[in-house]
User: Fold these one by one.
Assistant:
Number 1:
Amino acid sequence: MLESDRPKGRGTEARQRKARPITRIQREKQDLILEAALDVFSLHGFRGATIDQIAEAAGMSKPNLLYYFPRKEDIHKRLMAGMLDIWLAPLRHMDSDGDPIPEIRSYIRRKLKMSRDFPRQSRLFANEMLQGAPRIIDMLEGELKTLVDEKAKVIGGWMDEGKLNRADPYHLIFAIWATTQHYADFDVQVRAVLGNDRSGEGRFEDAACFLEQLFMHGLKPQRG
Amino acid sequence: MLESDRPKGRGTEARQRKARPITRIQREKQDLILEAALDVFSLHGFRGATIDQIAEAAGMSKPNLLYYFPRKEDIHKRLMAGMLDIWLAPLRHMDSDGDPIPEIRSYIRRKLKMSRDFPRQSRLFANEMLQGAPRIIDMLEGELKTLVDEKAKVIGGWMDEGKLNRADPYHLIFAIWATTQHYADFDVQVRAVLGNDRSGEGRFEDAACFLEQLFMHGLKPQRG
DNA sequence: CTAACATTTTTCCAACTGGTCAAATTTCTG
DNA sequence: CAGAAATTTGACCAGTTGGAAAAATGTTAG
C-alpha cells in the first residue's frame, strides 16, 4: 500500500506531551526546516520530496529533523497552513466599500506581487492542486469557497450598479488567479520564451501593465 | 544520489537492437502502458510516480512493463513528446492571414477545448513546469520559443494595423495559456468553489463565454 | 509441427524510503 | 559547577523502489 493512502493515527505534536515552553533552538531549527522543506516540496510535491533531501537542505541529519517534526506529513501540513494565509490574503483585502475599478486593479497587483515575492508558496499550492488537493480539499470547500462566494457577491453587486461590465464573477476571480499565478508556477516557461533580456526584473512590471490593460479594456479597439 | 539527478547513459530503445518490425502486441501494450502512465505521472509528477503504480494501472507486472520501456524515463519521454504536440497545436493553428479578433477568439476556444479534452496532458505539462522543466527545457527554449516569437510578431502586426488594442503580445499569449490551463490544472479548486451545481458540463461553456468577454472587452464599461 | 522469436513470470538485488531507538553530547537552570 | 532537560548522532529496521537475469510460456512463419 502506498504511504500517501495510509491513514495516520496520531496528531502532529507527538513530542511535546507536556506543553513545555518552546525553546530558542526549537524555533530556530523549525524555521530552518520549514524553509528547506518549502524548497523541496514546492519543487517535487509531497510524494516526490524526501526527508533526506529536506534534512540535507536544512543542514542537519534526518533523525535530528524528525526530532522536530516526527512525520513528513507534519512539515507539509505546517507549510500548507502558512501558505494558505499568504495565498488568501490578497482576496481578503478586497474592499466592498471601495471603488470597483481601483479595487480590482489593486487586487490584481497584490496577487501578482504575491507570485513575485512568494513563488515557492505559489508552487506548493499548485502542486497540491495538481494532485487533487488531497490534503486541503476541506479547506477549499470550506474557507476558500466561503471567501470566494462573499467576494463574488460583492463583484456581482458592482456589476448590478453598472460600475463594471457584466460577467461571471467566479470566472473573473479564476482568471485573476490564473494569470497572476502563471508568473510563479510557469516561471521556467516565461523565462524560456522571453529570453534572458526581458526575463529579469522588468518582467513583473510588464505583466502588471499588461494585466491591467487586459482586465480593464480587453483587446478590441473602441472605434468600430 | 537521487535518481532524478543521476545522468543516464543509454538511449531509449535498448530492447530493439536490430530494428525489428513492431508487432501488434507491442503496439497494444505500449499504448496501454502510456495510457496508464499518463494517469500516474500527471497526478504525481515524475519523481512521485512509481513503475509499480503504472504497471498496476496498466494491468501487468512490473518486469513485463519494463520489457516494453526499459526505463521509467523512457515512458515519461514518450508522453512528453505526445503531450507537447497536443499542447502546441492550438497556437500553431492561429492564422496570420485571418481576421485578428476571430483568430484570437478561436485560439482561446481551441486552447480551452484542449484543457477539457486532454486535462491529463495539461497537468503533465504543468507538473514538468513546476519542477523547472528539467526534461524539456531545450524544447522550451527552442521549438516553443520559436513558435511564440513568430506568433507574437503576427499579433504585434495586427496591433500596428490598429486591429487590436496595443498590448504586449507575449504577455497576451501567457494570459491565454494561464486562463485556459487553469480549468484543467486547478480543476479541483474550480469544482470546490463552484460547488456541485455549476461544476459539471456547463462549466467550460461558461468559461468560454467569460474569457471571450474578458479578452474582447475587459471590465470597464464604455460609457465613461 | 517445430524452431525461432516474442512475451510473461518468478526470483532477486542494491539503493532508497520513512521512521525508531538508545546512547552521546550540548545547553540551560539553579 | 552539577544535574536535568534538550538536542544530536549513529546504528538500525522493514517496506518500497527501479531495475536485472533467467527461466517459462506463447506465438508464428516456414
Number 2:
Amino acid sequence: MPLFDEENDQIIQRRKNLQAITELGFEAYPHKFDRTHTVSEIVHHYADRGGQRPAEELEKVNQELNGIKVRLAGRIMTSRLMGKAGFIHLSDGASRLQAYVRSNDVPVREWQLFKLLDLGDIVGVEGWLFITRTGELSVHVRGLSFLAKALLPMPEKYHGLQDVESRHRQRYLDLIANPSSREVFVKRAAIIREVRSFFDDRGYIEVETPMLSPIASGAAARPFKTHHNALDIDLFARVAPELYLKRLVVGGFEKVYELNRNFRNEGLSARHNPEFTMLEFYQAYSDYEQLMELTEELITGVVERVHGSLKLSYAGVSVDFTPPWKRVTMIKAVLDALLDQDDSKDLKERALVEVLAAEDPQFVSSFSPKEIVDLFDHFVEPRLIDPTFITGFPTEVSPLSKQSETNPGIVHRFELFICGLECANAFCELNDPAEQERRFKEQMDQRGRGVEEVVVMDEDYVRALGYGLPPTAGEGIGIDRLTMIITGQANIRDVILFPHMRPESK
RNA sequence: GGGCCGUUAGCUCAGGUGGUAGAGCAACUGGCUUUUAACCAGUGGGUCGCAGGUUCGAGUCCUGCACGGCUCACCA
C-alpha cells in the first residue's frame, strides 16, 4: 500500500518537481535554516508602512525599508508567476508576508527552483523589505532556499477546508487552511494561561492526582477501564479528581487546584467529548457563596482579557458577563419556566400552587427531586443565556455536598449556566464521614438497582474524612465549554484539537 | 441507540421529472519582470461513499452497509 495515492496527477507532479529540485542540487529535506525574524515579527513591525501612496512618497518609504535585510521562512500559501518574476505569500502559521522573486536578482539555479515550487512547500528567503506599487509590504528576494516539500495538494486557497470531518481528522490541514480555526486554539491557550495565573496569584497550589485509579469516583459517570499488567489489576481512567483533591485539603493543602483531563465513557455530542478538560479547585474555610464571588471574578477576568469585552455573541445571541450574575434556586427557576409553558397544563397547575411557597426555605415541593432536575434540564437550562447561578439542588443528586442547615433535602451547591451550557459546579464539601458513608451506600444501592452512573464508594476517602476535613468549598469548571462560549463555537469538537471520532474506514 | 439530512475531480460546489458527468480553484502546456481570489490562450483529470436491486438504461429510484452533520435520549 503506497503512502499516498500514486495515481493522483497532482501528487505525481509534486514528486516529479521534488525530483527536479534535488537534481538542481538542493537537499530534499535540509536540516536547518537560520532566520533573522519570523514572518509575524516583520508583519507586525512594519505593517504601518503599507498602503497606497503617491510615487515619491513610496520611494521614500522604500529607501528606508531597502536597508532592512531579512532571512525568513514559511509555507507557500499563494503563488503568482509572471514570466521572469513572481510573487508568493509565505506563512509562519500566524501571518503571511509576500515575497517577490525576480529572475535577474537571484542565482540561475534558484530561479529554476522557484519555478518548480508548489503551493504548500516550505521555503526560506533572504532579501530586503519594500512596499509594492499596490501598497503591500514584501520581501525582495535575492536568495531562495528549499526547506521541505508538500507532496499532497493544498485545500482551496479561497474557501479553505470546509468539510467538517476532514477539519477534525486532519486538524493540521485545517490549521494551515483556516486562520479562524487557529484563532480558536490560540484563545484556548490564553484562557488556560489566565486561569492558571488567577489561581497561582492567589496562593493556590497546582497539583496532579491520578488519572489511573482502581476506583473511578467523584462523579456519577461511567469510566474507561484498562488493565495494569505487573499488578494484574483493573484500573479506571478518572471521571473526576474531586476525591483526591479533598484528601489533599485534609493533608493541609488549604487551597489546591488541578487543571487536566477527565474521561467519561459516555455518548459523544456537540457538547461532550470522551476526554475533556476540567479545572477543579478547593479551598478550606470557605463556603459556596464565596465561590460564587470568586467565579464571577475569575470568569469575567478571563472573558475580558481573552475576548476584550464583557459582552459577546454566541450562536447569534448576545451574552453579557457584567456582574453581579443572577442567582436563582432550581425550584424557583423550574416553577417560573412551567408558568411560561403553554403546552403542559397539568405541570402548570401544580407549579401555580407552589410558586409562592417556594420562597420559604423550609419549602418541600410536591415534585420529586428527580422530577425537578428533569424539568430543569428540559425547560430551564436552554434558556439560561447570561451567566446564571442555580442553587438549591436536591440532596439526592448531590452525594458529595453538604446539606442546608435549615432544609436537609437541599444542599449548599450551585451550578453556573452560560448560553444554555453547564459551565461550573460547586458546593460546600460534605465533611462528616458518617453522612458521607451513608450517601455512598445510597449510591451503591442505586447501582444495585441497575443505575450505572453513580458516585462509587471510596472507603479510603471516608477514612480521610475521618481525620478531619475543614469546612471546605470546591468547584469544577469545564474549560472546553468555557472556551466554546468565549470563542463562539457551537460544537465542542471545534475547541478540541483532535476530537474523538470513529476510525477512518479504509 | 432513535429520527432527519448529507457523501460527485486534490479542494469548494452545481447537476428539475432516469438518457454518455459540469464549473471555479488547484494541476499541465504556452505567454507575461510590482502581482495579489493576478491575467490571457490551450490541455488533462471521475469506480458520482460501498454493496445489492428495479430498469433497455441509475449520480438520479429502492434496500442494506460505512462515514459524517443536526437532533432526541444519557452526560459536564
Number 3:
Amino acid sequence: MTGQAGTARRPTRQRAAIARALSGSAEFRSAQEIHADLAGSGTRVGLATVYRNLQAMATDGEVDVIRSPDGESVYRSCSTDHHHHVVCRSCGLAVEVTGDAVERWAEAVAAAHGFTQVRHTMEMEGLCPACTSSRQRGTVVRRPTQAPRRVVDG
Amino acid sequence: MTGQAGTARRPTRQRAAIARALSGSAEFRSAQEIHADLAGSGTRVGLATVYRNLQAMATDGEVDVIRSPDGESVYRSCSTDHHHHVVCRSCGLAVEVTGDAVERWAEAVAAAHGFTQVRHTMEMEGLCPACTSSRQRGTVVRRPTQAPRRVVDG
DNA sequence: ATTCACGATGAGAATCGTTGTCAAATGTGG
DNA sequence: CCACATTTGACAACGATTCTCATCGTGAAT
C-alpha cells in the first residue's frame, strides 16, 4: 500500500521531475506517457516511482485524475485550464466545453455539505449531429475504430 | 475489436440474462460481479460474453458506464435513478447529491452542439468537514484504508 | 561534518481486469 | 428444413498497475 503518514513528504529529484513534466502540459497524461517523457528527456525515473508519486500527488490534491476510456489513469496538474468534454459514442468526435454554471453548482453543492478543496470532473457522451441523422435514416454507419477528432469550443 | 455492423443485434439467452441482471439493481456493477451473479443464480454465461454484451449495450446507449476508482468498468442500466457523489479524498466519506442544475446544463450544452441522447457522469472530490478541520489544526490523521461511509442527501 | 532512522527508489515479478482467438453452437432469412 | 453469419465459451494473451525487497537519499540529531 502507498505509505502515507502525517509527516511531510520528502522532496526528491524524481518527484520534482514528475511535477515538472506534469505542469508542462495542460492535457491529461498517463503515468506511462510521463514516464516515457522523462526517459526521453534523459531523466531516469522508475515506472513504479512515477505511479507512486502521481498517486500521492492526487491524494494531496495537487493533481486531478480521471480514467481515460481505455482504462488508464490520466493526470493533470490542478491549476491548468479547466473544461469538460462531450464525446460522440458512435464516432468519437470530442467537443470541449466550458461553463461557469457547473463550476458554480459543484462548488455550491460541495460547500453545502461542508466539503472544502473540491475538484470535479464531468463526462458527457451522446450522438453527434452527423451520427444522429445517420441513425434516423436507419443507415447506421457505426465506426468501430474510434478516431476522436477534437473540436474546441468557447 | 467488437464486430458490430448495421444489422440489428441478435437476441440470445445470455444477452437477456445480462440485461435482466443489470436492470435488477440501481447500482453500478462490474462485469465480474454480474458474471458472478449469473453464475450464482444458475445461469451459465461466459465471462467474455458478459464483457462483450455490456460493451455492446454501452455502445448502443442502453447502459451507463463509468470507471470505478479501482479501475474496473462498472455498468448500470440507463433509466435508473440518476445522481452524483462528493467523495472525501482523505477518509472516503461519500455523499450522494442530486441537482437539476447540472442535468439541465449538461443537456443544454450538449444540445447546443447538436448532440442527442446525451448522458453524463460527474465526480466531485474534496475534503469532508472532519478532515478539513483536522488539517487546519495541523493534525493530519489520514486514513490510508478507505472506509467509504455513504450518506444520502436529498 | 558525521551518523541514524526511515521514507523513497528501482527492477522485476506478480496481479487482475479485459480483450483476442478460434472452434462449436445457435438464431435468421430463404 | 438449410445454409450462413453471428454469438458463445474456454483459455491464452495483454497491459496497466501494484507489490516486493534490497539499496539509496534526505532530514534531523549529534
